[in-house]
Amino acid sequence: MGCSDSKPKVEESTKDCPKDYPPNGLPESIKKLPEWIQLGCGDAEYYCEEKGAVFKPSAMPEECPDLSEHNNFFSEVMIANPELYGKLRGLTTSQGVNLGHCIKTGIDNPGHPMIKTVGMVAGDEESYTLFAELFDPVISGRHNGYAADAVHPTDMNPENLSTTKIDPTGNYVLTTRCRTGRSIRGFRLPPCCSFEERREIERVIVKGLLSLEGELKGDYFPLHGSRSYGPKPTGMSEEKEESLRNNGNLFQEPDSTLLLSSGCGRHWPDARGIFHNEAENFFVWVNEEDQMRIVSMQKGDDVAAIFRRFADATEGIKKVLEAEGREFMHSDHLGWILTCPSNLGTGLRAGCMVKVPLFSAREDFKAILGKMGLQARGGAGVDSEAKGGIFDISNADRLGKSETQLVNIFIEGVAQIIRWEQALEAGEDIEEAIAAAGLPEKY
Where is each Phosphagen kinase N-terminal domain found (predicted)? Predict the structure, then answer.
């Protein structure tokens, strides 16, 4: 898979894998997909002429490819500092990650004129320090000027949350959720981990999750067709998988060249899955874009209960990892270390599905949210359209502010938006209040 100078040795569990299963081949479920997706789900680095994904980390050209038509933070920094490519091209982390693994997705994907992606991923924790001359300005650009020597604060104490009621009437907020990610120190990140490494990541994480008690107690369900988990040797049933996806609680195979070029689709669906508790209001995705993506959610606006469940879970997993001599990836500068620089720091997105048809009809709706430290998505994800004035509104920042600060910005901001919606329903003028909108002073 190209993330080290030589192929990882074949261990016992890979010897037993049939020819139609990773890392030796593709399962039938993947063979049914278009070829451009299949090419990213095997053992090799992603190479697809159809999609223009032809940059090879294993054989990087001496000169950086032309980035003049690209629109991402990586290309912006590289165009401004063209010497960086040659300076960093020959470096490799102690776990075998080179510059090409980090920038392939940004070279293969020119981007969209209206949507600016990061254009980089980290192949391991060391990537962020070895290639800091490139990562630091990219991180600064994505996170509104975050300095190379800045220190990121962490605060997971639910007692520090705002007591403001987001939706006192219960008429506007449908569901609320908090999500973040965690990575385990010592393993490579999903873009570059080996087949065996991913299985070991799954084993360690699932052991931690199965030790959770009380309202967090639950079970682990590998993706349908995964053969990595002994208690469920063929993964969850297709019916279970379809149910989880229909409810928006489960990821699917990578269907974008951004993810495929990053390397996150290799060996699909092996060692990927989801843990959820019995109430199905706490979920952990395993080995998708991040080693762990942790989600706490429920109907209504009780973000304090959601955050407390979320904090208890991360603490519980941390204790089990420590008993195994493991710990989460974390640094004073970057906070919690995750695959994409956009999620560094807290990695946290506190959001709710909220119905505000009058306020969201404003042409400056998203610009106002930006001033308040918020962002809006349609109900089905990043690029989806909203229906019936229902938007997924969440904190915009991840890095430079603590978890509780970001949740408080979300609480105060959405509470204000609902008050504006109510004012518009009553025919009142809100222009003066809109003009004064911004981040809450104490955050």
Answer: 56-144
